[in-house]
Amino acid sequence: MYSFKVIFDTGSSQMWLPSINCQRCNKNQIGIVCEQPTCIPSQEQASITYHVGALIGVKCLGMFSINEHFDESQFILVDEVTGMEGAIYDGVVGLQQSSNHSFIEWPISFYYNFENSNRQSSITFGGYDESLFNKEIRYVKSDEQWIISSEKIDMNGILGVDLYAMIDSGSSLLIFPKNILVNLQNVFTNCVWTEIIKCSCPTNDISEFPTIKILLDSQEFSLEPQFYIHTNNHEPICYVLISNIRSHNDQLMILGSPFMRKYYTIFDKQNSQIGLVESIHYQESNQKNLLKNFFTLIGCTIIAIGIIKIVNYVMEYELRKYNNQKSLMV
């Protein structure tokens, strides 16, 4: 029996794992020898092209398990990869609605850890974990590729209208069409546009960056700078987690982990919809900020009262001094 670390990818539908012959597939350099009865190879070749790489292999049928639930599923046994060499993961399990992995229980829910959160990232199969949010879930309709209609995207002004958005657990960035990338150059000025955008942040203060607002299925979802900006205390640079490589489709936005870090995401295959709700860590950080602002306000009020009292004492002293001088003159 093999054990693998895989990416559960809502942006694709196929599953692939490395063969023993694929020396560049992963850092672990582990792979499958496909032998009957647990694995049945075919003579049919298959390939997958991703946004940043590609792979080639043969189709096989194997037995798989998550949480001791075993079932057969077709997968690609990969012999060669390009652009994905030395990955820290072993393979990918595609979770688009067209995927037919019978060992997967739906719905599937994703919780992405945030930098200041003590909770670990997690995936829930067959439901969702109510301890990871405490607001009402908002549902948006999607197609079988988890693509949602998007009326507009706004960031200090409208960037684009009449678009589509894919919520993609397999992407670590936000990926936009060419016309939106062009408009973003007016937002992120004085930045270097490499594969991702690098901006000068001498104090690591990201509060001046704008909030992204996206209408999905006529409902607004916002993304504050702390979710799409990465800072490093060791260097005065902010990394904008937006790819400078445009989407393959001129109307498609890909909302990867920056979006899913804020929103607990529920992929409901049975009803062709996605549930979105602010994760508990975002709600907790908001409460901390409110509490911090509250105590800052109290502190400023106490200082102000103290200054007012000091001024009153000075005024009273000067007034008594004046009255004493006046009575002596009389």
UniProtKB/TrEMBL annotation:
Keywords: Aspartyl protease, Hydrolase, Membrane, Protease, Transmembrane, Transmembrane helix. InterPro entries: Aspartic_peptidase_A1, Pepsin-like_dom, PEPTIDASE_A1, Peptidase_aspartic_dom_sf. The keyword Phosphoprotein does not apply. The keyword Membrane applies. Residues 1-277 form the Peptidase A1 domain. The chain crosses the membrane at residues 294-315. PROSITE patterns: PEPTIDASE_A1. This is Peptidase A1 domain-containing protein. It comes from Paramecium tetraurelia.
